[in-house]
Amino acid sequence: MTSYTTEFDDIPGTRVFTASRAKAGYELNQFCMSLMKEANRERFKAGERAYLDETTKMTEEQKQAVLDRDYNKMIDLGGQIYFLAKIFATDGLSYLQAVSTMTGMPVDEYQQMMISGGRSPEGWRSVKDGK
Amino acid sequence: MARITHGLTTSHIPAVGATIDHGKTQEPYWKPLFDGYEWTKAWAKENVPDVVILVYNDHASAFTPALVPTFALGCADEFPPADEGYGPRPVPVVPGRPDLAAHLAEGLILDEFDLTLMYEMQVDHGLTVPMSLVYGQPEAWPTTVIPLAVNVVQYPPPTGHRCFMLGQAIRRAVERFDENLNVHIWGTGGMSHQLQGPRAGFINQPWDHAFMDRLIKDPAELAQMQHLDYVREAGAEGIELVMWLIMRGALGPDAEELYRFYHVPGSNTAVGHLVLRSVETPA
To answer: Distance of CA B255 to CAs B17, B159, B163, B177, Å?
Structure first.
Protein backbone atom coordinates (compact mmCIF):
# COMPACT_ATOMS: atom_id res chain seq x y z
CA MET A 1 0.00 0.00 0.00
CA THR A 2 1.35 3.43 -0.85
CA SER A 3 0.84 6.29 1.54
CA TYR A 4 1.88 9.94 1.64
CA THR A 5 5.14 8.90 3.29
CA THR A 6 6.04 5.84 1.22
CA GLU A 7 5.48 7.64 -2.09
CA PHE A 8 8.67 9.60 -1.45
CA ASP A 9 10.65 6.34 -1.41
CA ASP A 10 10.34 6.31 -5.20
CA ILE A 11 12.63 9.33 -5.43
CA PRO A 12 16.23 8.13 -5.79
CA GLY A 13 18.90 9.09 -3.25
CA THR A 14 16.50 10.97 -0.99
CA ARG A 15 15.12 10.62 2.55
CA VAL A 16 12.39 13.04 3.50
CA PHE A 17 12.28 13.81 7.21
CA THR A 18 8.97 12.29 8.27
CA ALA A 19 7.40 12.33 11.71
CA SER A 20 8.62 8.77 12.35
CA ARG A 21 12.19 9.64 11.30
CA ALA A 22 11.96 12.70 13.57
CA LYS A 23 11.15 10.36 16.45
CA ALA A 24 13.99 7.96 15.60
CA GLY A 25 16.48 10.80 15.22
CA TYR A 26 15.32 12.87 18.18
CA GLU A 27 18.40 12.44 20.38
CA LEU A 28 20.78 12.84 17.43
CA ASN A 29 19.11 16.07 16.37
CA GLN A 30 19.04 17.36 19.96
CA PHE A 31 22.77 16.67 20.21
CA CYS A 32 23.22 18.82 17.10
CA MET A 33 21.26 21.64 18.74
CA SER A 34 23.59 21.54 21.73
CA LEU A 35 26.38 22.65 19.37
CA MET A 36 24.71 26.04 18.95
CA LYS A 37 26.53 27.08 22.14
CA GLU A 38 30.21 27.96 21.86
CA ALA A 39 31.06 26.29 25.16
CA ASN A 40 29.53 23.02 23.97
CA ARG A 41 31.35 23.21 20.65
CA GLU A 42 34.64 23.57 22.52
CA ARG A 43 33.82 20.67 24.81
CA PHE A 44 32.82 18.47 21.85
CA LYS A 45 36.01 19.31 19.96
CA ALA A 46 38.12 18.56 23.01
CA GLY A 47 36.76 15.00 23.24
CA GLU A 48 34.04 13.89 20.85
CA ARG A 49 33.45 10.42 22.23
CA ALA A 50 33.28 11.66 25.81
CA TYR A 51 30.86 14.45 24.87
CA LEU A 52 28.55 11.97 23.12
CA ASP A 53 28.67 9.50 26.00
CA GLU A 54 28.25 12.07 28.75
CA THR A 55 25.68 14.44 27.28
CA THR A 56 23.50 12.48 24.85
CA LYS A 57 21.18 9.49 24.81
CA MET A 58 21.96 8.58 21.22
CA THR A 59 22.24 4.97 20.09
CA GLU A 60 25.72 3.57 19.58
CA GLU A 61 25.08 3.45 15.83
CA GLN A 62 24.15 7.15 15.80
CA LYS A 63 27.24 8.03 17.85
CA GLN A 64 29.47 6.12 15.45
CA ALA A 65 27.93 7.85 12.43
CA VAL A 66 28.67 11.23 14.07
CA LEU A 67 32.26 10.25 14.86
CA ASP A 68 32.67 9.02 11.25
CA ARG A 69 31.00 12.18 9.87
CA ASP A 70 28.93 9.80 7.76
CA TYR A 71 26.08 12.16 6.85
CA ASN A 72 24.17 9.64 4.74
CA LYS A 73 24.20 7.26 7.70
CA MET A 74 23.13 10.01 10.10
CA ILE A 75 20.18 10.78 7.81
CA ASP A 76 19.29 7.07 7.65
CA LEU A 77 19.25 7.09 11.46
CA GLY A 78 16.83 10.02 11.70
CA GLY A 79 19.12 13.01 11.33
CA GLN A 80 17.93 16.02 9.35
CA ILE A 81 20.35 18.20 7.41
CA TYR A 82 19.53 21.51 9.13
CA PHE A 83 20.22 19.90 12.49
CA LEU A 84 23.30 18.08 11.18
CA ALA A 85 24.56 21.43 9.88
CA LYS A 86 25.55 22.27 13.46
CA ILE A 87 28.10 19.43 13.29
CA PHE A 88 29.77 20.57 10.09
CA ALA A 89 29.59 24.21 11.24
CA THR A 90 31.52 23.11 14.32
CA ASP A 91 34.04 21.49 11.95
CA GLY A 92 34.30 24.80 10.09
CA LEU A 93 32.81 23.35 6.90
CA SER A 94 30.30 24.99 4.57
CA TYR A 95 27.10 23.34 3.37
CA LEU A 96 28.73 22.72 0.01
CA GLN A 97 31.73 20.98 1.55
CA ALA A 98 29.60 18.80 3.82
CA VAL A 99 26.87 18.06 1.29
CA SER A 100 29.40 16.91 -1.31
CA THR A 101 30.49 14.09 1.03
CA MET A 102 27.06 12.47 0.62
CA THR A 103 27.38 12.20 -3.15
CA GLY A 104 30.61 10.20 -3.34
CA MET A 105 32.17 13.00 -5.39
CA PRO A 106 35.31 14.90 -4.37
CA VAL A 107 34.36 18.42 -3.28
CA ASP A 108 36.00 20.15 -6.26
CA GLU A 109 34.20 17.86 -8.69
CA TYR A 110 30.91 18.48 -6.88
CA GLN A 111 31.45 22.24 -6.97
CA GLN A 112 32.28 22.06 -10.67
CA MET A 113 29.03 20.19 -11.26
CA MET A 114 27.15 23.00 -9.49
CA ILE A 115 28.94 25.70 -11.48
CA SER A 116 28.01 23.79 -14.65
CA GLY A 117 24.32 24.03 -13.75
CA GLY A 118 23.88 21.41 -11.03
CA ARG A 119 22.90 17.75 -11.08
CA SER A 120 20.59 17.10 -14.01
CA PRO A 121 17.14 15.78 -13.09
CA GLU A 122 17.47 13.11 -15.80
CA GLY A 123 17.58 9.70 -14.14
CA TRP A 124 16.91 11.17 -10.68
CA ARG A 125 13.13 11.51 -10.70
CA SER A 126 11.79 8.02 -10.12
CA VAL A 127 13.17 4.60 -9.22
CA LYS A 128 10.04 2.86 -10.47
CA ASP A 129 9.94 4.60 -13.85
CA GLY A 130 13.71 4.62 -14.24
CA LYS A 131 13.76 8.29 -15.28
CA MET B 1 -6.11 51.23 6.30
CA ALA B 2 -3.01 49.15 5.84
CA ARG B 3 -2.28 47.75 2.39
CA ILE B 4 -0.02 45.09 0.95
CA THR B 5 1.50 46.83 -2.04
CA HIS B 6 4.44 44.66 -3.09
CA GLY B 7 5.76 41.14 -2.87
CA LEU B 8 9.26 39.84 -3.19
CA THR B 9 10.74 36.36 -3.37
CA THR B 10 14.31 35.32 -2.89
CA SER B 11 16.44 32.32 -2.00
CA HIS B 12 18.01 32.53 1.46
CA ILE B 13 21.28 30.61 1.05
CA PRO B 14 23.48 30.68 4.20
CA ALA B 15 26.74 30.98 2.23
CA VAL B 16 25.37 34.19 0.70
CA GLY B 17 25.16 35.67 4.19
CA ALA B 18 28.68 34.54 5.02
CA THR B 19 29.95 36.04 1.75
CA ILE B 20 28.38 39.42 2.59
CA ASP B 21 29.65 39.30 6.17
CA HIS B 22 33.21 38.52 5.03
CA GLY B 23 33.24 41.17 2.29
CA LYS B 24 33.65 38.69 -0.57
CA THR B 25 30.71 39.66 -2.79
CA GLN B 26 33.00 40.85 -5.60
CA GLU B 27 34.86 37.54 -5.94
CA PRO B 28 34.36 35.99 -9.40
CA TYR B 29 32.25 33.08 -8.11
CA TRP B 30 29.85 35.35 -6.23
CA LYS B 31 29.77 38.58 -8.27
CA PRO B 32 27.12 37.46 -10.82
CA LEU B 33 24.79 36.52 -7.96
CA PHE B 34 25.14 39.81 -6.11
CA ASP B 35 24.93 41.83 -9.35
CA GLY B 36 21.49 40.29 -9.77
CA TYR B 37 20.29 42.07 -6.64
CA GLU B 38 21.57 45.56 -7.55
CA TRP B 39 18.29 46.53 -9.23
CA THR B 40 16.38 45.45 -6.14
CA LYS B 41 18.66 47.29 -3.71
CA ALA B 42 18.14 50.53 -5.65
CA TRP B 43 14.38 49.92 -5.83
CA ALA B 44 14.22 49.07 -2.13
CA LYS B 45 15.90 52.37 -1.18
CA GLU B 46 13.11 54.27 -2.93
CA ASN B 47 10.33 51.97 -1.70
CA VAL B 48 10.81 51.44 2.01
CA PRO B 49 7.67 49.91 3.53
CA ASP B 50 6.47 50.43 7.09
CA VAL B 51 6.43 46.70 7.65
CA VAL B 52 7.68 43.57 5.88
CA ILE B 53 5.82 40.35 6.58
CA LEU B 54 8.71 37.98 6.02
CA VAL B 55 7.80 34.37 5.28
CA TYR B 56 10.75 32.07 5.84
CA ASN B 57 11.68 28.80 7.45
CA ASP B 58 13.72 28.27 10.55
CA HIS B 59 16.67 25.91 10.04
CA ALA B 60 16.82 24.24 13.43
CA SER B 61 17.66 27.53 15.17
CA ALA B 62 14.58 28.80 17.00
CA PHE B 63 12.81 25.45 16.88
CA THR B 64 14.50 22.44 18.39
CA PRO B 65 13.35 18.89 17.55
CA ALA B 66 11.04 19.26 20.56
CA LEU B 67 8.70 21.71 18.84
CA VAL B 68 7.47 21.74 15.23
CA PRO B 69 4.94 24.53 14.61
CA THR B 70 3.50 24.59 11.08
CA PHE B 71 3.01 28.38 11.04
CA ALA B 72 4.64 30.58 13.71
CA LEU B 73 4.06 34.35 13.76
CA GLY B 74 6.65 36.63 15.38
CA CYS B 75 4.85 38.99 17.77
CA ALA B 76 7.85 40.31 19.73
CA ASP B 77 9.41 43.81 19.84
CA GLU B 78 12.56 42.49 18.24
CA PHE B 79 14.25 39.35 16.95
CA PRO B 80 17.98 38.77 17.53
CA PRO B 81 20.12 36.88 14.99
CA ALA B 82 20.72 33.23 15.97
CA ASP B 83 24.05 31.46 16.45
CA GLU B 84 23.81 28.67 13.87
CA GLY B 85 27.12 27.14 14.82
CA TYR B 86 29.49 29.76 13.36
CA GLY B 87 28.47 32.51 15.84
CA PRO B 88 25.57 34.93 15.17
CA ARG B 89 25.70 36.89 11.89
CA PRO B 90 26.98 40.45 12.43
CA VAL B 91 23.68 42.04 11.40
CA PRO B 92 21.36 44.38 13.30
CA VAL B 93 18.67 43.03 15.57
CA VAL B 94 15.44 42.81 13.54
CA PRO B 95 12.77 45.22 14.86
CA GLY B 96 9.30 43.74 15.12
CA ARG B 97 5.90 45.35 14.70
CA PRO B 98 3.89 43.98 17.64
CA ASP B 99 0.71 46.00 17.08
CA LEU B 100 0.18 44.71 13.55
CA ALA B 101 1.37 41.25 14.58
CA ALA B 102 -1.27 41.12 17.33
CA HIS B 103 -3.90 42.23 14.83
CA LEU B 104 -2.78 39.55 12.36
CA ALA B 105 -2.79 36.88 15.07
CA GLU B 106 -6.37 37.71 15.96
CA GLY B 107 -7.57 38.02 12.38
CA LEU B 108 -5.87 34.88 11.11
CA ILE B 109 -6.88 32.64 13.99
CA LEU B 110 -10.50 33.78 13.73
CA ASP B 111 -10.16 33.10 9.99
CA GLU B 112 -9.35 29.49 11.05
CA PHE B 113 -5.56 29.50 10.60
CA ASP B 114 -4.31 28.05 13.89
CA LEU B 115 -1.02 29.90 14.25
CA THR B 116 1.66 29.47 16.88
CA LEU B 117 2.53 32.88 18.37
CA MET B 118 6.15 33.70 19.20
CA TYR B 119 6.92 36.35 21.82
CA GLU B 120 10.61 35.50 21.93
CA MET B 121 12.42 34.18 18.89
CA GLN B 122 15.86 34.23 17.35
CA VAL B 123 15.98 34.46 13.57
CA ASP B 124 18.47 32.62 11.38
CA HIS B 125 19.78 32.96 7.83
CA GLY B 126 16.34 32.15 6.46
CA LEU B 127 15.27 35.64 7.51
CA THR B 128 18.49 37.64 7.75
CA VAL B 129 20.01 36.70 4.36
CA PRO B 130 17.03 38.13 2.44
CA MET B 131 17.28 41.30 4.60
CA SER B 132 20.97 41.64 3.68
CA LEU B 133 20.33 41.01 -0.02
CA VAL B 134 17.68 43.72 -0.18
CA TYR B 135 18.95 46.29 2.34
CA GLY B 136 22.71 45.70 2.32
CA GLN B 137 24.69 46.27 5.51
CA PRO B 138 23.03 49.18 7.37
CA GLU B 139 23.61 49.94 11.05
CA ALA B 140 19.89 49.49 11.63
CA TRP B 141 17.30 47.88 9.33
CA PRO B 142 15.16 50.50 7.55
CA THR B 143 11.84 48.71 8.15
CA THR B 144 10.05 46.73 10.83
CA VAL B 145 9.48 43.03 10.23
CA ILE B 146 6.86 40.48 11.19
CA PRO B 147 8.47 37.05 10.80
CA LEU B 148 6.24 34.19 9.69
CA ALA B 149 8.11 30.91 10.13
CA VAL B 150 6.77 27.95 8.14
CA ASN B 151 7.70 24.34 8.80
CA VAL B 152 9.25 22.96 5.62
CA VAL B 153 11.72 20.76 7.51
CA GLN B 154 9.56 17.96 8.87
CA TYR B 155 7.06 16.24 6.58
CA PRO B 156 4.34 16.97 5.99
CA PRO B 157 4.86 20.69 5.63
CA PRO B 158 1.70 22.69 4.88
CA THR B 159 0.32 22.13 1.37
CA GLY B 160 0.84 24.73 -1.30
CA HIS B 161 -2.90 25.28 -1.29
CA ARG B 162 -2.94 25.97 2.45
CA CYS B 163 -0.07 28.42 2.03
CA PHE B 164 -1.88 30.21 -0.79
CA MET B 165 -5.03 30.48 1.34
CA LEU B 166 -3.02 31.79 4.29
CA GLY B 167 -1.62 34.51 2.03
CA GLN B 168 -5.14 35.49 1.00
CA ALA B 169 -6.16 35.63 4.67
CA ILE B 170 -3.14 37.79 5.48
CA ARG B 171 -4.27 40.27 2.83
CA ARG B 172 -7.77 40.44 4.33
CA ALA B 173 -6.40 40.88 7.85
CA VAL B 174 -3.94 43.62 6.84
CA GLU B 175 -6.74 45.55 5.13
CA ARG B 176 -8.73 45.54 8.39
CA PHE B 177 -5.90 47.35 10.24
CA ASP B 178 -6.89 50.98 10.82
CA GLU B 179 -3.54 52.68 10.57
CA ASN B 180 -2.27 53.69 7.12
CA LEU B 181 0.64 51.37 6.57
CA ASN B 182 2.51 50.30 3.47
CA VAL B 183 3.16 46.58 3.90
CA HIS B 184 5.39 44.37 1.77
CA ILE B 185 5.37 40.59 1.92
CA TRP B 186 8.36 38.41 1.12
CA GLY B 187 8.39 34.70 0.37
CA THR B 188 11.83 33.18 0.75
CA GLY B 189 13.63 29.91 0.14
CA GLY B 190 14.11 27.78 -2.98
CA MET B 191 14.45 27.40 -5.78
CA SER B 192 15.42 23.87 -6.84
CA HIS B 193 18.01 22.34 -4.54
CA GLN B 194 18.77 19.24 -2.53
CA LEU B 195 21.17 19.18 0.40
CA GLN B 196 21.07 15.50 1.31
CA GLY B 197 21.91 12.05 0.04
CA PRO B 198 23.41 10.83 -3.24
CA ARG B 199 20.97 13.08 -5.15
CA ALA B 200 22.42 16.27 -3.56
CA GLY B 201 23.17 19.05 -6.01
CA PHE B 202 19.90 18.48 -7.89
CA ILE B 203 18.88 21.53 -9.96
CA ASN B 204 15.97 21.84 -12.41
CA GLN B 205 16.25 25.11 -14.31
CA PRO B 206 13.31 24.73 -16.75
CA TRP B 207 11.03 23.79 -13.86
CA ASP B 208 12.17 26.81 -11.82
CA HIS B 209 11.41 29.22 -14.66
CA ALA B 210 7.98 27.65 -15.17
CA PHE B 211 7.32 27.93 -11.43
CA MET B 212 8.00 31.68 -11.49
CA ASP B 213 5.74 32.16 -14.52
CA ARG B 214 2.90 30.19 -12.97
CA LEU B 215 3.31 31.91 -9.60
CA ILE B 216 2.68 35.26 -11.25
CA LYS B 217 0.00 34.31 -13.77
CA ASP B 218 -1.85 31.33 -12.36
CA PRO B 219 -1.09 30.87 -8.68
CA ALA B 220 -4.38 29.16 -7.79
CA GLU B 221 -3.57 26.33 -10.18
CA LEU B 222 0.08 26.20 -9.06
CA ALA B 223 -1.15 25.90 -5.47
CA GLN B 224 -2.58 22.47 -6.34
CA MET B 225 0.89 20.99 -6.83
CA GLN B 226 1.60 18.11 -4.43
CA HIS B 227 4.63 17.76 -2.16
CA LEU B 228 5.78 14.69 -4.09
CA ASP B 229 6.06 16.77 -7.26
CA TYR B 230 8.07 19.47 -5.50
CA VAL B 231 10.56 16.89 -4.23
CA ARG B 232 10.66 15.02 -7.56
CA GLU B 233 11.12 18.12 -9.71
CA ALA B 234 12.78 20.68 -7.40
CA GLY B 235 14.78 18.51 -4.98
CA ALA B 236 14.16 17.71 -1.33
CA GLU B 237 14.78 21.28 -0.17
CA GLY B 238 12.86 22.73 -3.15
CA ILE B 239 9.79 22.15 -0.98
CA GLU B 240 10.59 25.60 0.49
CA LEU B 241 8.85 27.04 -2.56
CA VAL B 242 5.45 26.48 -0.94
CA MET B 243 6.33 29.61 1.05
CA TRP B 244 6.32 31.69 -2.13
CA LEU B 245 2.62 30.89 -2.44
CA ILE B 246 1.92 32.69 0.86
CA MET B 247 3.49 35.81 -0.63
CA ARG B 248 1.51 35.40 -3.84
CA GLY B 249 -1.81 34.81 -2.09
CA ALA B 250 -1.29 38.06 -0.17
CA LEU B 251 -0.85 40.11 -3.35
CA GLY B 252 -4.42 39.62 -4.53
CA PRO B 253 -5.61 38.21 -7.86
CA ASP B 254 -3.25 40.11 -10.15
CA ALA B 255 0.43 40.84 -9.79
CA GLU B 256 2.78 42.72 -12.06
CA GLU B 257 6.37 41.54 -12.43
CA LEU B 258 8.78 44.41 -11.78
CA TYR B 259 11.98 42.40 -11.73
CA ARG B 260 13.25 38.84 -12.11
CA PHE B 261 16.64 37.27 -11.52
CA TYR B 262 17.75 33.64 -11.74
CA HIS B 263 21.21 32.23 -11.24
CA VAL B 264 22.88 28.85 -10.75
CA PRO B 265 24.64 28.17 -8.47
CA GLY B 266 24.53 29.84 -5.13
CA SER B 267 26.46 27.19 -3.27
CA ASN B 268 24.13 24.15 -3.72
CA THR B 269 21.09 26.09 -4.83
CA ALA B 270 19.31 27.68 -7.78
CA VAL B 271 18.81 31.32 -6.85
CA GLY B 272 15.44 32.76 -7.81
CA HIS B 273 14.30 36.30 -7.13
CA LEU B 274 11.17 38.25 -8.05
CA VAL B 275 9.85 41.70 -7.22
CA LEU B 276 6.11 41.97 -7.78
CA ARG B 277 3.52 44.71 -7.44
CA SER B 278 -0.01 44.04 -6.33
CA VAL B 279 -2.42 45.21 -9.04
CA GLU B 280 -5.55 46.43 -7.31
CA THR B 281 -8.78 45.32 -8.91
CA PRO B 282 -12.14 46.99 -8.26
CA ALA B 283 -14.21 45.14 -5.68
So the answer is: 29, 22, 17, 22
Residues recorded for chain A:
131
A45 touches chain B (CB under 8 A): no
Answer for the pair B201, B265: CB distance below 8 angstroms, yes or no.
Answer: no
CA distance B107 to chain A (A): 30
Residue window 62-91, chain B: list those with CB within 8 Å of chain A. 64-66, 68, 82-87
Question: Scanning every residue of chain A, which has its alpha carbon at the shortest distance from the alpha carbon of B192?
Answer: A118
Query: How many folded domains does chain A comprise?
Result: 1
Angle of helix B160-175 relative to helix B98-110, nearest 10 degrees? 120
pTM over 0.90: yes
* Domains of chain B by start residue, with CATH: 3-272 (3.40.830.10)
Distance CA B93, CA B226 (A): 36
Picking from B84, B124, B196 by the largest number of A CB atoms within 10 A of its own CB, the best residue to mutate is B196
pLDDT tens track for B49-59 = 999 999 999 99
